[in-house]
Amino acid sequence: MTTKRFFAGFLLVSLLLAGIVSYYASANPDGLEKVAEDKGISAKEKDHSLKDSPLGDYGVKGVDDARLSGGLSGVIGVGLVLLVGGGLFWTVRRRGPAAAQAASQPDETAPSEPSRKG
Fold it and tell me: 41: which of 3, 36, 53, 89 fits an S-S bond (Cβ 3.0–4.6 Å)?
């Protein structure tokens, strides 16, 4: 399997999971939320500052269909993670070998030292 096919498959599976399968996730609270509700800790919780953002509350603002809104939110999230992660990887990858190669080669623009005889 080539690297391009691997990443294409990875992208396809990620988009399918985020766009379609995520709609069928359980609406019941997870373990941490359940304990917080049982112990009364969740009574003190406050809304976060990004709840009114375009992707707040696991949906896309302005899209009324819950299935479409959640799917779009997942696809946009996958895209953003791949763009940011890929950009960071590309930046680090480009700097790594070039910096090591530049450090191992002498600077040809610097004046050379006179040879010492003695």
Answer: 36
Give per-residue pLDDT as tens, 23-34. Answer: 887 777 688 888
Token duo for residue 100 = 């090591």
- DSSP letter at 76 equals H
pTM over 0.70? The answer is no
Residue 49 three-state SS: coil
Q: Is the dihedral of CA 88, 90, 94, 97 positive or negative?
A: positive
- Give the C-alpha distances (Å, rounded to integers) separating 11 from 14, 18, 25, 80, 106: 5, 10, 20, 12, 43
Write out pLDDT tens, residues 50-98. Answer: 888 888 878 888 888 888 988 999 999 999 999 999 899 989 887 655 5
